[in-house]
Amino acid sequence: MSTAQERAAALDLVARLKSSYPELPDAPTPDLIDHHRLWAYLKTDHDVGGEPDVAMVYENKQYEMWEHYTYVICEVLAWRGIWLSEERRRIGNVDLGRAMYLGLPYYGRWLLAVARVLAEKHHIGLTELSERMVEVKARYEGGLAGKTLTAEPKFEGDGSRVERNRHHLAAVGKGDPQVFAGAAGRARFEVGDLVVVRELPALFYTRTPEYVRGAVGQIAALAYESPAPEDETWDRPDAQPEWFYVVEFHLSTLWHGYTGIGTDLLRTEIPERWLEPATQSDHLAQKGSS
To answer: Is 105 domain-assigned?
Structure first.
């Protein structure tokens, strides 16, 4: 179990990470990298919750048309069985590197994921895609200027021969996560149970945020059954469904130096493999460290 102060110190270190730590040379020898810096390098790019940063001004921004189109494209690709939603999240949110993840617009990353999956699964060639980008740029040179956006496809594809993923075929007519109902067996935890979030290595992809790992929480609800994101994102044929839980945490035990109301709560969804039973002494120790 880790304390809120220890988690804050770890996140402070990650926040300093750019391309490399200034005190280390490029391609350092193993003896120059301590455990904490290795952890920071391996941390998934999308897990930025809790890292210190300047305050952001909330703006109720309306989506632009390209953002709407990007969302629809991604939904159609999932509906047609081209990819899984977790696969899209990994490709669009993780397999970019920290600089691109932080530096690109949200739906810009989604759009790159579309291009990448279509190329990787041989639905389009990069040369064809590049040429089409040049054509579209020329078509709207100088901006829209009153023009209507049009796709202008060169041909109509035959979707009947597109290979669908196994999950799509299994979930047709049922939905997700309904397709996994009854497949996980008996839930290990019940509402009201105290749990500790395990501090597992998080390589490449995860949906369990860093700021709750090692913290004590309480099961607020049983959510649904599904393979864990770490397996589902790679479309593993042997991925076993498990229970997902809504876990409740007191903010004062999550954030070192928290100055809000002691009853402030945070709820997040966590798969069963990330949880283990907590004792009452764990709970008391966590409160004492906040």
So the answer is: no
Point out the catalytic residue in the list 63, 106, 107, 211: 106
273 domain residue, yes or no: yes
Would the pTM of this model clear 0.70, i.e. be above it?
yes
CATH number at residue 256: 2.30.30.50
Is 63 a residue of the active site? no
pLDDT tens digits along 153-175: 888 878 888 888 888 888 888 98
Residue 255 CA to residue 39 CA, distance in Å, equals 20
Where does residue 121 rank: exposed (0-12), middle (13-18), buried (19+ CB within 10 A)?
A: middle
Query: pLDDT, tens digit, for every residue of 49-62?
Result: 888 888 888 888 88
Instruction: Give the Cα separation of 18 and 37 in Å (integer).
Output: 12
Q: How many domains does the chain have?
A: 1
Q: Is residue 25 part of a domain?
A: no
Residue type, position 283, single letter: H
